[in-house]
Amino acid sequence: MITLGRMKKVDDLRQAWSHEEYEFTPWLSKPENIKLLSDAIGIEIEVEDTESSVDSFFADIVGVEMGTDRKVIIENQIEPSNHTHLGQIITYAAGKDAKTIIWIVKEARPAHRAAIEWLNNHTDADINFFLIEIELWQIDDSLLAPKFNIVEQPNNWTREVKKVSLDQTSETLQARYNFWTRFNEIAFADVEYKRAFNIRKPSTDHWYMMTVGNSKYHISLLYLVQRNEIGVELYISNDKVLFDTLYSKKDAIEAEIGQTLQWMKLPEKKASRIVLSKSYDLTDQTLVEDEINWLKEYSLKFKKVFIKEYK
């Protein structure tokens, strides 16, 4: 008969971190620990600075969402939430022009849950507030283990419908949202794919961003309803030298991927793109699994080839 341990919650966070600034923030800023938070909220974060000045105040952690230039701020509080820290996260968000604001607390008071929910419902669709409780757990006398619990986060569909513009019909938005929902169900049932990429929440965007551990570039999957096309692209945020380096290996890269790519330096813009696309009748629902399998196949190839060429 197997012997099982008993899990117990450790109420006193200061058994692990006696001080927010000097112990918790340095601990969380380490790559292996920020990954725990990234996994919990579905956003890969790269730490840029700790105790970063905003006027006469200091944000605990400032980072960036990998593969983009979207700023992330994290405010830590190993005690119950309070009004002071609520004001601080808004001040830091404004000072750093952050798109993702994460408030980590020992216990989220109801008034502050309501405040974060209100902010998510009344700010722009590209601004995201997370309220997270940090817990410590232990099995018998084992080492303490941290656990992040999401208390409040953006409401997916409510935020997405705010993105509707005059040239986007509700049918198009719904089609995108349905496709990315189905993509998550099929693609991430594959163990290999789940190891290669982190799942993201479905959206009404025509792209699905896949981070690859480097803030210089990311892989995007494309679902282009008006053009009846799907695609995979390497999106290079702001590095023409990197594009030129990859372009110098164009023949070898295309041979390994097995397809001719579109190499778009876009000199008038900051970003550059390397794209592979395929035509499909996106109104034919019998083709959805074929489309998803094609995206899976070539996004894996893009990651393998481009990561090898430029780490």
- Specify the helix fraction band: 25-40%
Strand content: 25-35%
Fold-level CATH name of the largest domain: Trna Endonuclease, Chain: A, domain 1
Please, how many helices? 10
Structural category is alpha+beta
Q: How many individual β-strands?
A: 12
Spatial extent as radius of gyration: 22 Å
Under the CATH scheme, the architecture of the largest domain is 3-Layer(aba) Sandwich
Shape descriptor reads: globular
Report the average pLDDT across residues.
88
Describe what you observe in this structure.
This protein has 311 residues and is α+β, with helices and mostly antiparallel strands. The protein has two domains: 7-154, 3-Layer(aba) Sandwich (Trna Endonuclease, Chain: A, domain 1); 166-309, Yope Regulator, Chain: A. It has ten helices and twelve strands. The chain has helices at 20-29, 31-41, 83-96, 110-122, 156-161, 170-187, 191-196, 240-247, 250-257, 288-309; strands at residues 7-10, 45-54, 57-65, 71-80, 100-107, 128-139, 145-152, 207-210, 217-224, 229-236, 262-264, 272-279. The strands form two sheets. Strands 1, 2, 3, 4, 5, 6 and 7 form a seven-stranded mixed sheet that branches. Helix 6 (170-187) packs across helix 10. The radius of gyration is 22 Å and the shape is globular.
